Amino acid sequence: MDRNKLHPTMDRESRVTRLESFLKGKGIRAAHLARDAGISRQHLMRLRRGTSQPTLHMMIILATAARRILGRKVEVREMFDIEPKRRR
User: Fold this and answer.
1) How many CB atoms lie within 10 A of CB 80?
2) Among 9, 72, 77, 85, which is most exposed with the fewest C-beta within 10 angstroms?
3) What CATH number labels 18-79?
4) pTM, whole model, 2 decimals?
């Protein structure tokens, strides 16, 4: 695998996932989000680093947990890079 290629959920300039940027920008501690989402800190770390891809269901769980923490509606696209699949 070419290490120079970026993961689809990574920001091209900073090589940081959108999830990581969201957490840092909103001041959310990863352990807090993991606990509220009911997932392990290790799983969340893999998602934050971009070494694991979340399912749509997991994206919704994390956005819901972030909503509880922030006290406002959080869109999945704020946390993850979502692109529609192209039809052939």
Assistant:
1) 21
2) 85
3) 1.10.260
4) 0.78
